[in-house]
Each structure stands twice: as structure tokens, then as C-alpha cells.
Design goal:
The chain folds into 2 domains: 85 residues, Ubiquitin-like (UB roll) (Roll), CATH 3.10.20; 127 residues, Cytidine Deaminase, domain 2 (3-Layer(aba) Sandwich). The longest helix has 15 residues. Helix 1 packs across helix 5 and helix 5 packs parallel to helix 6. By secondary structure, it is α+β, with helices and mostly antiparallel strands. The strands form 4 sheets. A 6-stranded mixed beta sheet has the order 10-9-11-12-13-14, sandwiched between helices. The chain starts with 8 loop residues before the first strand and ends in a 17-residue tail after the last strand. Helices cover 25% and strands 30% of the residues.
Length: 275
Amino acid sequence: MSQTNTDGIHPLDYTLYENGAWQPMAGAITEEALVCIHVNGRELATFMCTPREQDELALGFLRAEGLIHSLAEVRALTISANGRCVDVWLDHAIELPARRIITSGCGGGVTFDDMQARHPSASLRTGAPLNTRATITPDQIFARMRELYQAGDLYSVTQGIHTSALSDGERLLLVAEDVGRHNTIDRLWGKALKQNISTEGNILLATGRISSEMLGKAAKMGIPIVVSRTSATSLSVELGRAWNITVVGYARRNSLRVYTAPHRIALEAPTVAPA
């Protein structure tokens, strides 16, 4: 389903107070709505999200929850006329999870995976800590983070949205925006499925706080380096250590903080390669 660049943008007139004076302004804010996902005719989850490219959000969420592993398993996907419901039909039956976990994401993200219950020493993808030769330099991180802000078409208009990107270190491969930072990761995986781009061994860049759920999604995607312009949570750092994922926070201008697995932050000769 194709979308225009105006989807997700809500025009809004407002009054600006600046330098002691009031003036009317014409502007825009980020659109937020409830979007539900139905699988094989049954409701799976409902999100607070930016209502655009809902197919990619649905596909990424199904992949993140382990309900599909490839696009070939999807028989049909339709989006309602108002964009508020996504119906997905698979080529196999699924057992709907009994327990939902409302996460710390903006608007309350949804997952069926209890990170704390299954955490300690194995990644969610392979059953072992991630072991890749991927490295990136600080200068590359700074350059890719600058590109991350320039790449977001919604951010350029509203400046009120989260952005994430998949990168090979040299360039941005995929970019996703949403009011919920967790949703941006699902959107990235949905885009990767549709474009047949492997996520393994690549780098995740984000504008929002690195939470345990975001790190869990990165582990499932086989991503060894997660970078944000802001902080990480205590559980995400604990999981990063257990899963051998490099967690980098406060990547701004000419400084950054490496919380876990610092060996992947190289001074020169970077390489990004799958395990």
C-alpha cells in the first residue's frame, strides 16, 4: 500500500508567543491514532502509532513476535479504508499469545515477550550471545546520526516524532518514523522483509531511549550495535552485557557513551559483516 508523505501529518493553526508578542501561525503536528492488527480473523494487538505505512508496522511486529519468519508466509494483507485496522492472513495457523506486556514506549508499546523472564545469557535469535566482526568508528556514528535526522520527512515538518534507521556503517539502509519509539523498530523489520534486506550484522540507530524491549528486538534481528542520541535503561544495559550487544548512548556531535561491548567501537578500519 503506497502512502503519501503527508500521511502522519496533522495541519494545525496555533498562536506563538515570542519576544513579548503574540502572532498566529500555520503549522503541523504528528498524527497519532489507534491501529489494530488482526491475524487470520482474530485481533492480535492494538497500537498507539502514526497511521501510515501500517503494512510495514504489522509485518515487523509479526516478525518480532516470531509469528512469521518470511514474507512468503503472508497470504494477504489489507488495510481498512480509514487506516485504523490491518488484516493479515497467513498460510498457517497461529496460537495467539495469552499474555500481553505493555512496555515503556511512548503510548505504551505491546509485546508478548517477557525479557526479564528469559534474559540472562542467550540472545533471543540464536540462543547464544551475539558474536560478529561488526565494528564502527565514532566518526561514522556521528555522520550516520546526522543523516538520521535529515532522512526523516515527518521530523522535518513536525519535529515531534521518533526516528530509527538500519545502517551498514557506511550509509543508512532503511529509515522509519513513528510517535512510538518501539514501533519504529517494528517498522524497520517490516521494511526489511518487504525489500529483502537482511538485518543481521547491521547497526540500529535511534533517536529515543534504548529500552529493554528495543534491545530485545535488536537481538532478534541479529543486530550487534545499538546507538541512540539519548540514554539506555538499566535493564537494556544488563541485557546488552548478557547478549554481547554494543549499547551506545548520547551520540551527539563529537561525544558518545559506550555502555557495553566497547570492542566494536573502532578507531579505524571499520567493517560490518554478518556472523
